[in-house]
Each structure stands twice: as C-alpha cells, then as structure tokens.
Amino acid sequence: MHRKKILELLDAHIYADVFEANMTQVTEDFINAHPNCFDRELLIGHVTGSAWIVDNSGKFVLLTHHRKLDRWLQPGGHCDGDSDVLRVALKEAIEETGVQDIQSVNESIFDVDVHEIPERKGIPAHLHYDIRFLFIADKAIPLVITEESNDLAWVELSKVEELNNEDSVMRMVWKTGQITI
After folding, report:
1. Of 127, 130, 109, which Cα lies nearest the Cα of 11?
2. Do residues 75 and 96 lie in contact, with contact meaning Cβ atoms separated by under 8 Å?
3. Cβ within 8 Å of residue 45, ≥6 positions away
4. Nearest CA-CA partner of 132 in 167, 85, 71, 66
5. What is the pLDDT of residues 100-117, one digit of tens each?
6. What is this structure's pTM?
7. How far apart are CA 119 and CA 139, in angstroms?
8. What span, in angstroms and rounded, lies between the C-alpha atoms of 95 and 146?
9. To which CATH superfamily is domain 4-177 assigned?
10. What percentage of the chain exceeds 70 in pLDDT?
11. Domain ranges of the chain
C-alpha cells in the first residue's frame, strides 16, 4: 500500500502542541480517506512535502520568498503522485534553492501543518497537508533563485518572526531551538 509508510511516520510523529496534534490526526484521516492523496489533481487538497533546512550551527534556516504566495516560507511542493514525501521534500529543496548537498537529519517527520491555498488561475482553493522534514546544509554554498521564488536567504532563527510570524513557521523555529544539530 503506497500510503502505509507516510501513515507509519505520522503515527510515530511527536507533535509540539495540541494544534499540531489535531493537524496530524486530520492529515491521517485525509490520507486514509483518499487513495490519491498524493496527486495535485485531487482538488479538495493533497499531501505536500517541505524542507526545514538549517545550517550546521542550527542557528540559521534557509527560507524562500515564494513568488505565488508572496511570503517567506520553507522550500517545498507537490508530491505529484510520489508517496515518498521525504524524497519529495528533498527534491523540492534542491530545485528551489540550487543547493545540491542537502542532508536529511533523519527520516522522521519534523512538523505537520494543514493550510489553505487560495484559488488561483482556475484552481479552486484547497488544502495542503504539508509534511515537513528537517535537513542540514552548508550556508556557504551559493543559492540559486528560480522562477518559483523572489528571493532566498539564510535567516537567523531569532529573526524569522520579522519575515513570517505564522504559527506553523514559528512552531518550527521553536522546535529547532529544542534540538541539537
């Protein structure tokens, strides 16, 4: 079953608070209800993969200023049918940053978030069931801005709130401060 691995990862996920616990359960329910949950053609919503990329010190995170959403966010994107969400997150991170040497800290889920994507170009508003993984990269490696981004930047964790103070982003900042890289 192509959904088994992600469901096992979600079952093992240690969430930060009651809000993330709820989103984890909602995500599990969605995946169980929709065999095609990894396909963007499922217009009510779909699973996406994101990369929270920190530097070797654990004090900086790599953010992209998303062109379509006009916000600073972590790299990530659609699974397009691929049920290996960790692989999707890594692929999107490499594509969106140009950094080829990005290493997964482990195979565990770092964070889970469910958020609405607004209607755009005839695609109705829908939900992203975003599965986020923790990665490490060397911040000395040059970044490559693609057509998906207006900008890329290594941002000190203490300054992330100045660019994006959304709960889901601030939760990942908090989590980063709780671990040793």
Report:
1. 109
2. yes
3. 30, 126, 127, 128, 129
4. 85
5. 999 999 999 999 999 999
6. 0.96
7. 35
8. 8
9. Nucleoside Triphosphate Pyrophosphohydrolase (3.90.79.10)
10. 99
11. 4-177
